[in-house]
Amino acid sequence: MIYISTDYVFDGTKPPYSELDTTNPLNMYGKTKLQGEQVTLEASPNHIVLRVPVLYGPVEYLGESAVTVLLQLFYDSEGTKLVSDSEMRYPAHVDDIASICVDLLELKETNADVKGIYHWGGKEAMTKYGMVRDMASIFQLSMSHISPDPNPSQGTSRPQNAQLTNAKLENLAVGKHTPFRVGIESVLTGWVQRKKSEGL
Q1: CA distance 199 to 25
Q2: Cβ atoms of residues 58 and 98 within 8 Å
Q3: 79 in helix, strand or coil?
Q4: Across the strands, what pairs with 135?
Q5: pLDDT digits (tens, 9 = 90+) for 69-115
């Protein structure tokens, strides 16, 4: 079994995080994910826990991902939109994570030591505002009504920088990273074209 967990099991104060670092989730999402990890490994130490960062990929609606939902900002031009330029994220494409899961399971067939906790994070440090900037550049969209917010996000507590180290997986020759600009263009092109056809 592979249990998909999150970088939010860390508090973001001492990145980058290895699989041996102490967890300290700041919000309910991180806490419940950590509980899931514990149940998974208690059920069998041979199970695998894969911690990943914020994910993006093909979606049925933009709000399905915390990354793709940012595209909506360009089409809501009423008033200035403040977008977090504080917390660092390391977005990963879902295809990369799926590939890693397959590689881990195949490797596990011949290597009984493949078990326990593993990390995989994207290789580009980005704030939400940085992601929006890339979207604007790729699709030639106006950012005149979008401004960076240097303050920590309001509401639910989030880690400032929960970067995960990939070394343990890379030492097994497992890993895949799609550059963000390449990945987000492939994911959002259809949505942008649809908006244009609607006259937006």
Answers
A1: 43
A2: no
A3: coil
A4: none
A5: 999 999 987 889 999 999 999 999 999 999 999 999 999 999 999 99
CA distance 74 to 153: 20
Nearest by Cα to 53 from 99, 102, 7, 103 = 7
CA distance 105 to 118: 13
DSSP-derived secondary structure for 59-73: -SSGGGSTTGGGGGG
List Cβ neighbours of 197 (8 Å cut-off, separation of 6 or more): none
Rounded Cα distance between 110 and 103, Å, is 12
Helices first, then strands: H and E counts in the chain: 5, 7
Which has the closest alpha carbon to 50: 16, 4, 95, 18? Answer: 4
Query: Of the candidates 119, 113, 135, 140, which has an alpha carbon nearest to the alpha carbon of residue 180?
Result: 135
Alpha-carbon gap, residue 94 to 91, rounded angstroms: 10
User: What CA–CA distance (Å, rounded) separates 22 from 176?
Assistant: 26
Torsion region of 160: left, alpha or beta (phi above 0 gives left; psi -120 to 50 gives alpha): alpha
* 34 DSSP β-pair partners: none
Over residues 160-193, the pLDDT tens digits come to 999 999 999 999 999 999 999 999 999 999 999 9
